[in-house]
User: Which sequence fits this backbone?
């Protein structure tokens, strides 16, 4: 409606201007009388000035509106009554458009806030950065994963893991890829996905990161459990009848010894047979006991979760490791935790895990002058509990560092190779982890749940 009124008045002004121009031209050509031409020329100028003013006034109103929109000033409103019907209708239309833009902006802000809340509360780490390395957006999961408080530029990763920063820069549109992140004494295995976006003609990368170490450990443990169950079943099914038959034959030939006691040759053969059967029985029973010991790995007992005092736990552990101090002549030190430090755990299981780690550490430093094993605990900022078992031994060689949690793997002559793998199972049941960091002169096992 406003444009219709505007067009009518614009056409009217143009018609008057054209008619005046025609009359002025006719007078100049025919009469050449200044008293007629001069008023018409003044009128022509006046009409042109009014037309320009009419156009500029509307343009100024529209320009003021555009500037208000550019400056996000949605409170800018034009007066609805100016005495000019054209301007009034134009103001009403611009005010309605302004309200529509304001409502759209509010909706967008609500959506942005909604997705921002989702971003900051999901467990998947999200990092958005541009080609210059400036971080446009991230979430708490990413900060927690990287172990930093603020994240504004990828250059901050130089203090965490420079190699990981380079991997993020090189990420492209691909399927999920595996990245390694070394964070302090830990090495995390991450699954990363990269999406390239364009924001205001600027290329940015959106990368999601997930720690898959726990899932890989769970699948690995499940695979070992299934394998051990199969081996137990097959070995026991084969050993049991062999051992039983050997025991029966041994009893028969022992009775035969009484009948052939007077015949030296027969007595020698029977004695050899009995001794051989005795060896078969002995080795068969030893092998069955050996296999039975590995059933522990496949029978994870139910946890009895209770609220326990870390100080009381350390006091109990200090008593239990006393024989180790004498056996290995090693200094074992417990750093007393805060008296009000309480955690939820299965106390028996956690004692078993720590004792195993302390024993391994004590054996490692027993031949070292000034060997020491130190046990401490702390409550992390993410509300997880850590127990650290540290020794100053020669360290774990890098070539076997990835094998120490594998069932049956051991470097000890009399070791079973299930201590660390079983400890890892216990921590998995606690929704926790057990990690190792080692270098010459220092080895740290971290129990976290």
Assistant:
């Amino acid at each position: 409606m406003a444009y219709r009124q505007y067009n009518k008045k614009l056409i009217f002004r143009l018609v008057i201007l054209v008619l005046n121009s025609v009359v002025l031209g006719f007078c100049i050509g025919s009469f050449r009388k200044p008293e007629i031409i001069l008023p018409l020329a003044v009128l022509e100028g006046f009409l042109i000035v009014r037309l320009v003013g009419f156009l500029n006034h509307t343009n100024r109103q529209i320009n003021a509106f555009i500037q208000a929109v550019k400056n996000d000033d949605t409170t800018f409103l034009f007066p609805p009554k100016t005495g000019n019907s054209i301007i009034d209708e134009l103001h009403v239309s611009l005010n309605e458009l302004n309200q529509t833009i304001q409502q759209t902006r509010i909706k967008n802000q609500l959506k942005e806030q909604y997705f921002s809340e989702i971003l900051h509360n999901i467990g998947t780490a999200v990092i958005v950065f541009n080609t210059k390395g400036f971080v446009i957006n991230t979430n708490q999961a990413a900060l927690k994963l990287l172990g930093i408080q603020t994240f504004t530029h990828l250059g901050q990763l130089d203090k965490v893991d420079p190699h990981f920063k380079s991997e993020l820069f090189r990420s492209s549109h691909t399927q999920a890829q595996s990245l390694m992140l070394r964070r302090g004494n830990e090495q995390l295995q991450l699954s990363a996905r990269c999406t390239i976006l364009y924001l205001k003609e600027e290329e940015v990368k959106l990368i999601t990161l997930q720690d898959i170490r726990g899932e890989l450990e769970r699948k690995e443990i499940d695979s070992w459990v299934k394998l051990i169950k199969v081996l137990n079943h097959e070995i026991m099914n084969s050993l049991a009848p062999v051992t039983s038959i050997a025991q029966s034959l041994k009893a028969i030939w022992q009775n035969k010894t009484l009948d052939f006691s007077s015949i030296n040759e027969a007595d020698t053969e029977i004695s050899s047979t009995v001794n051989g059967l005795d060896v078969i029985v002995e080795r068969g029973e030893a092998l069955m006991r050996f296999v039975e010991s590995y059933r522990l790995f496949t029978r994870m007992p139910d946890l009895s979760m209770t609220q326990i005092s870390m100080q009381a736990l350390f006091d109990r552990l200090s008593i239990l490791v006393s024989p180790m101090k004498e056996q290995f002549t090693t200094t074992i030190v417990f750093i007393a935790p805060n008296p009000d430090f309480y955690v939820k755990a299965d106390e028996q299981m956690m004692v078993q895990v720590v004792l195993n780690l302390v024993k391994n550490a004590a054996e490692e430093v027993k031949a070292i002058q000034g060997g020491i094993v130190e046990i401490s605990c702390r409550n992390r900022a993410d509300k997880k509990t850590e127990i650290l078992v540290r020794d100053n031994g020669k360290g774990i060689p890098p070539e076997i560092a990835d094998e120490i949690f594998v069932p049956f793997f051991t470097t000890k002559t009399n070791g079973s190779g299930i201590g660390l793998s079983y400890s890892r199972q216990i921590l998995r049941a606690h929704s926790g982890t057990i990690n190792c960091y080692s270098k010459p002169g220092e080895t740290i096992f971290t129990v976290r749940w």
Q: What stands out?
A: The radius of gyration is 43 Å.
